[in-house]
Structures are given as C-alpha cells and as structure tokens.
Specification:
With 204 residues, this protein is mainly α. Helices cover 81% and strands 0% of the residues. The longest helix is centred in the N-terminal third of the chain and has 27 residues, at 51-77.
Length: 204
Amino acid sequence: MASVLLLLAAVLVMTLGVSEVGAALLGVLGWLVALAARLPVLASAGRLHAIRRRDTILAVTSGITDEVVRLALVLALLGGVGSALWAGFGWTLAGLVFTGATRMAQFRWPLGQQAAEQLRSQGGFSSTHPVHAGVRAVTATSLHLGATLLLTAGPWWVLVTAAAHAVVNVVFARWAWRRLVPVEVLGTVVSAALLVAGLLMSLS
C-alpha cells in the first residue's frame, strides 16, 4: 500500500512538479470534511438492529457524501488537471491512513468505535492479506483520481461519480465477507472505468 502511494507520488512530482502539493493537502482536508459529514448518519444508523439495512445506509451515505464534498472542493478550490490529480492523491492517502489506523488494535480513542463501523460499511473488515491490501489501495487510488478528474471536467459528472461510489461501497459492505474475489473485481472495474473516463475527459 505504501509503495503504491510512493510510486504515484514520484510520478506526479516528475510530471507536475512540487507546486501542486497544496492541492494534495486540500484533498486530505476534503476527505476529513466528508468523514465528519458522515458521522451524524453513522450515529443514527448505529441504532438500527437490522445490520444489512444499516450497512447499506452507511455505504450509500458514504459514497454520496464523498462526491458532494469532492464537488465542492473542485468548484471552490481546485483548477486544472494537475490540481485534480494531487487532490485525488491526497484524498486517497487520507482514506488509506484511516483504514490502516482503524485496523490497529490500539485504535481505542473515543472515535474508534465509530471509525470501525465506518470501515466495516466499506468492506474494510474483509481481509488483511498484503495482496488484498495492495489491490484495495490501487482500487481506491483509481476511484478517487478518476472521480476528481471527472468533476473537474464538469459538475454534472457528480451524478456518475456518486452512483459509482455508492454502488462500490454497497457491494463491499454487503457481500465482501463471503464473495471477496468477485466484489474486488467489480470494485476494480468500476474504479478503472472512472479513472479512464476522467483521463479522457481531461485530455479532450
């Protein structure tokens, strides 16, 4: 996971220079805002006894909230393909660090329980195998870079990115624990499609 991020960072630095590092920090900030925006729904859904319904609500809310916050970030603070790539990288980095921290046994401060619920809602409980972690890192990177690039191409793309993000989250939340391989394949395909679409739109 760390090697994927370092490789991506090196490629971006060589192609864009270091001037866009601020955009990466904006991506981290955007992810934190999206996480905070999900907490009220997380607290409410936590009272539901129907686990599958709760996980579905959390997964859909997570996907839609992320894309609305991402759209606001793009419209208000980002400009150009370079900034979008760095912001997507920062967003991915924040999410992966959060996932890793949530898996740690010592992650027991007051937000720990809510963080674990949020992680489970996105299928993060499924496996800790290094290969699986690497696949998830690549998938997450493709999704966030692609979604950010698409929103830079036009705000109406939020309908596509929100739908794709919500679908991936729901599939992970509801079926990853028993059908991990097909779920991972679906997540990879959707994320790759977003990335390819984002790159094509940014070049057109």
